[in-house]
Amino acid sequence: MLDVQHMISRYGPVTALHDASFTLEGGEALALVGTNGAGKTTLVMSIAGHVIPESGHVILDNENITEIPSHIRARRGIGLVPEGRRVFPDLTVKENLITGGYVLPRSSEQQRLNDVYDIFPRLHERANQLAGSLSGGEQQMLAFGRAIMLNPKVMLIDEISLGLMPKVINECYAVLEKLREKNISIILVDQNSDAALSFADKAIWLESGHVKWQGLARDCPLSKGSAVY
Ligand SMILES: Nc1ncnc2c1ncn2[C@@H]1O[C@H](COP(=O)(O)OP(=O)(O)O)[C@@H](O)[C@H]1O
Ligand SMILES: [Mg+2]
Questions:
Q1: 111 lines ligand 1 (CB under 6 A)
Q2: What is the pTM assigned to this prediction?
Q3: Of 71, 80, 145, 219, which one has the fewest beta carbons inside 10 Å?
Q4: Residue 159 Cα: closest atom of ligand 1
Q5: Cα gap 108→111, rounded to integer Å
Q6: What is the DSSP track for 180-221?
Q7: Distance from the CA of 111 to the center of ligand 2, in angstroms?
Q8: Residues with Cβ < 8 Å from 62, sequence gap 6 or more?
């Protein structure tokens, strides 16, 4: 379903991602692990179309989307929950959700809003509140909601648990589980690599932009369950 091959991305002279390839079926989850600066965000942003890779390709449901801009990728079903959430603090919860899905037809907007409110009743309660007044956990839920407004086929979630309380982190993973049940593919970065690896099916371990290891998440050398941990 999602097929990423030989992705190489650079920022000027810095090659941040040397050669990453993977495939992901509907409902499968991939964890990207590795220390700061490993290239996780670069890979996420290259798939979302915010970083233009030097080479490689991204194919979603047999369509080559490598060359198409990020907002069209969003329309094709690439949902992004960026690091730091990036909600609009001066817009209401509802306005944030609507802007999240603005690339899709207005005719389906109310239905998509209802879908988000079903998953996050708290966002419904706070629909008219400014996003800047929400807690960190609620802002993360809103960031999820903005991506879900796109009816995504793939969800990219960067640094899911950054700055959140353990209880809220558990809630985030419960939402991921729901998305997985809806056959949405998930690409996940979590500074707590154990949490990401125990959720995911597959894993890629990046170091300095190189794929150091990839395979089934439960076999990842960084996993506590692994024999080489
Ligand atoms: N906008 C940018 N301009 C220049 N270098 C960048 C930029 N973003 C990231 N980098 C560099 O690319 C490398 C990978 O960074 P990143 O993908 O953010 O890693 P991670 O998300 O794993 O921490 C690092 O060396 C980082 O300094
Ligand atoms: Mg990062």
A1: no
A2: 0.94
A3: 71
A4: 21
A5: 5
A6: HHTT-EEEEE-SSHHHHHHH-SEEEEEETTEEEEEEEGGG-T
A7: 33
A8: none
Q: Model confidence over 16-74: pLDDT tens digits?
A: 999 999 999 999 999 999 999 999 999 999 999 999 999 999 999 999 999 999 999 99
Outline where DSSP puts E strands in 100-200. 154-157, 185-189
- Name the amino acid, one letter, at 60: L
Distance, in Å, from the CA atom of 145 to the CA atom of 123, rounded to the nearest integer, reads 9
**Spatial contact of 211 and 20, defined as CB atoms under 8 Å apart:** yes
The class that CATH gives domain 2-87+150-219 is alpha beta
DSSP state of 184: -
Which residues are within 5 Å of ligand 2 (an ion), measured at CB?
Answer: 40-41
Helix then strand count (H, E) for the chain reads 8, 10
Residue type, 216: L
